[in-house]
Structures
1.
Amino acid sequence: MSLRQTLKRKRNTGLGMRKRPRIECAAEQLPWKKSRRPLETGMGGDDGILELEEVEGVEVVYETTDGGKVAKFRVTEADRPGSSSRTPSEIGSSQVDPDDDHPEIPPPEVLAFDSALLPEWASHSLHPQLMHVLYKKGFVTPTPIQAAVIPLASKSRDIIGVAQTGSGKTLAYGLPILHFLLSQPRPGTNKRPLRALILAPTRELALQVSSHLNECLNPVDNGGDGVSPQASKEVNTGKKGKERNKGKEKEKEDASPTRPFKKPSPHVSVAAIVGGMSSQKQRRILDRGVDVLVATPGRLWDIMEGDDNLARELKNLRFLVLDEADRMIEAGHFAELENILRLTLRENQNDEIPTEYNAMTADSIGEEQKPEVSDGLQTFVLSATLSKDLQRNLKKRMRPKSNKKRKNKDDKPASTLDDLLLRLDFRDPEPEIIDLSPQGKVVSTLQEAKIECLTNDKDVYLYYFLLRHPGRSLVFLSSIDGIRRLLPLLELLEVKVSPLHSQLEQRQRLKNLDRFKSTPNAVLLATDIAARGLDIPAVDHVIHFQIPRTTDTYIHRSGRTARAMNKGFSMLMVGPDERRIVRALMGSISRDENEIPELSIELSMLDKLKARVQLARQIEQSQHKVKKANYEKNWMKETAEALGVDLDSDNARHVSLMTLLLV
Ligand SMILES: Nc1ncnc2c1ncn2[C@@H]1O[C@H](COP(=O)(O)OP(=O)(O)OP(=O)(O)O)[C@@H](O)[C@H]1O
């Protein structure tokens, strides 16, 4: 567009012709709206995409400046979200004006749930929508950690919960948070104020927690996962069967005391903020406002550094959760985590904090269930592995005075989990510690075994195990190099294998995880980023190809199988130099290494497989050589082209090589 045209457009939009004022702003400040994912294009899954967004009422204008053509976005006033009188710099700003006179949005009306259908949950008086979801998922009984945490959480107590892997810790803190938010009116401000922050150590875990909580908010009757076991049994195949089922389902629906919610409730929103995905998009999500934010500390801190409003919001949180807190220290998020936690400290710990109206109505709770601790922030710390010492220290609340506020720049930051957790400003004078971790630390439904072999023979033993014991197998290695070596070998042996480690792009990580979840007999080669929290349905085997470095890692890795009281199998592959480590690992949880039985091996089969693995190794080595040579050739060619050097003649090649080397 020429300058003249630009000016003409400006004039046209300027005086009599202008119906709406137009505002110029940057791309990330446009009034983006959430868009439905078109399932038919195969974009229904996560696939690395957090969400699709669209924008309307935006005019793109090109202006010629001294620096060349510049695109500008103009938004019609009526299309801007919220107020009609904000300046361009306010578009996308997340500040909530406390003096705004917006009426509160009452909680959505929901049909009552007949708690006789879930008698074991009845005493927890959860919001009907949550009861409906539990019913649809077939979660008839609260797990022990849920049964212990939920009543205390409803009394606004701070909780440190330790329970075995796969024991339902996510819902133990998730249900009380969602119950509270679903039962409360929402401030009718332009933007939802942030009410709950859940910190998780890895991107995958954060995304999983966020989708787990979202499932509780969107109990759409889609016949998928959410169908109760009874309902799914009644599904019939064949045309007639389908017709009959349609009729039956309609009847059941009409008579159902839990009639499905026609529309998902927008009353509470949950979003994830993780690294490896567009931070602009994530900023926009935050600008629009969410009630519950699930985040990895690194990305959250990145975003917060440029966003004072978010930092302010953290001061007014209602819930703070540290999921797998001990792993966050290992993941190198220490400084970010500490910075974020510092924002949740009270200015003055003696500050009176007004009693917050607890979500439950007076009718639905008994006298004895009424909130006892009145406070602004409730903190939950959960893990499958928190040391007894740490629990004792937390109980005694031995928080050094300087933790309240680090006034002196030279004060050293915290450096261990104990240090960090002791910096948490629990509002509860005595946080409740619930330790349900089992004796011996691993889940009772887990069967353990080991293979002792030469390090060089581990490949063939692994291949043997995968062939001899089909199933979904998660293989842990301690290094990315180890995965890079093993992956092509298993591919050549036609194993359905994918990698998962921190040097893969986030999109690829999620894709590989999805493939592993959806493919029977799939194998995932993973580093310890997959050790914690990941709830992958039906992992049959966990294989410790390389020995874990700590007992906690052994417990968490093994905990990817045998979840929710299902059976599972964990196998240690022990090289000669690793025996000592295994002895020490087991000793630290008062176990004897000999308690773990050796896997029986059919030696005749193993011998045959050795030849195959040997051949695969040779093929892999030659393929690697060819790839390397091609890479070098291409590199030479591209560099020569870029320098305008001819590589054709021998002489020229010699000269060119010299030139390239000198360059
Ligand atoms: N009350 C329940 N009844 C049956 N299954 C449940 C119940 N609550 C949760 N689950 C299921 O149990 C599985 C494990 O739950 P979750 O991932 O919360 O475990 P976790 O204790 O956080 O494990 P980890 O320590 O490994 O992170 C999930 O698939 C979840 O849906």
2.
Amino acid sequence: MAAQSEKNGIGQIPIIDIDISGAAQESEVAEKLVDAAARYGFVYVRNQGKDIPIEAIENMFDLSRTFFSSPADEKASCKITENNRGWSGMHTETLDAKNQRVGDFKEAMNFGEFVEGKAQQPLPPCFRANESNLNQFQKYCHTMMLKLLKLFAIGLKIDEEAGGSDWFASRHRGGGPSGCTLRLLHYPQISSGSDYQPSVDIRAGAHSDYGSITLLFQRPGQPGLEIIPPETRTAEKNYGPTAAWTPVPVNPPGTENDPSPPILVNIGDLLSHWTNNLLKSTVHRVVFPKGGKDGGEDRYSIAYFGHPISSTILEPVPSEMVRVLALGGENVNGSGVKAMTADEHLMSRLKATYLGMYKDDEGDKEAEKVSTS
Ligand SMILES: O=C(O)CCC(=O)C(=O)O
Ligand SMILES: [Fe+2]
């Protein structure tokens, strides 16, 4: 099928088809992908079940519902630890501490990498019985991430002699652990009598993702994601209610008849930092549906956070498009910045998110330093 990209109006995130045949089409799609990532930091990837079978996505959502409805002590048996794996309950995570009164109205389950098909973390019975499906789903996501990274490298015209189209992908596969994380998310509906304040409370506070790229799976009829388009962002980092929050529909026009909503792909802080902010790490959040206290439905989503191999040194990207953006200061290509590894970058961001879980308090300071915002 022909690759297709359309900008359906101002402020709308482009929809791209990555079902590619032939090199000419590949570079056309790659260019569109880089344009979308440079302008919005987000792009919809049509989902016809070619990269990831629709059934595998449906099964993951079924499993997610089963897990989140299981008894509290079962969930507590795999509680999140410093390695960022496991279950985090309601209000555990506070993505935007400056603007939030309480933590996010969500619960989540993080899976780190599997080794030889086995999870490297405690699993409650429902996941234990589905370990091979979880492993397979993670593989699908990882493979799709590598395909996208290849397209980004082509779109950025990375120098052939330095590795060309494989430059990013080769730093995300084989040889050692990485921060790659599969995350199931559940945003429960508000029960009557709960301490929920519609004017301030939020399902997931404003944040940008930490890694290279994120794949996000959403469900029809369960909206809530919003972004601040980079071009509307102000210098003073206003992520509060008066920022230019723009809803991101689950099914943008033209995708309603696809077998599954498009997969949203967004750029994380690390890839933005790495490309001297050519690709944007866009701030986003998840809000409650309008309608008040007793309204709304449960919302489920699944995110795959792609990261380079932990020991990867974030050396300058050998691309003229990236080099011309080197202005010094925060840029990897500039002077005076310590070349950090992917793992150092990730740890600095995690410490800022899970207030209190990491014992030292350096996280906030380090996060400020590496933030691409
Ligand atoms: O649930 C969503 O739609 C977004 C989740 C998200 O942004 C995250 O977990 O980083
Ligand atoms: Fe996110």
